[in-house]
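Hi Y.,

Following your request, here is the sequence exactly as I used it, all 121 residues.
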Amino acid sequence: MYETIIEAFQKSVSQYGSKPALSHKVNGSYQDISYHELSQRVQQFSLGLHEIGVRPGDKIALISENRPEWTISDLAILSLGAVTVPTFPTLAPSQMAYMARDSDAGILITSTKKLYERIMT
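Below is the corresponding structure, written out as tokens. Let me know if you'd prefer a different format.
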């Protein structure tokens, strides 16, 4: 049994390596992301988050549709010991903004600039 999601993810990376972890549409056809590639993307994003000061226990609001970047962001946040505050992008902008503020999230990650602007207005 694993104690954390990150432990389970790391085990999956070592066990399944080049096999597909995620698939997503690119220009009308599906493209796979292997466990190794997913792990690399998670590591890169977590380094960026760490560089801007994210530390264990910090809360980060994540507002995004279902897409690979959501998974990458979530795993990067968790790998730093921070807390993901997930919010659905289909909520009213005022509800998304309230959830981000009420959670004490210090950082807001959105899938698009347009979504960010909807929340911040």
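The beta strands are 20-26, 29-34, 59-63, 83-87, 107-110.

Thanks again,
Q.
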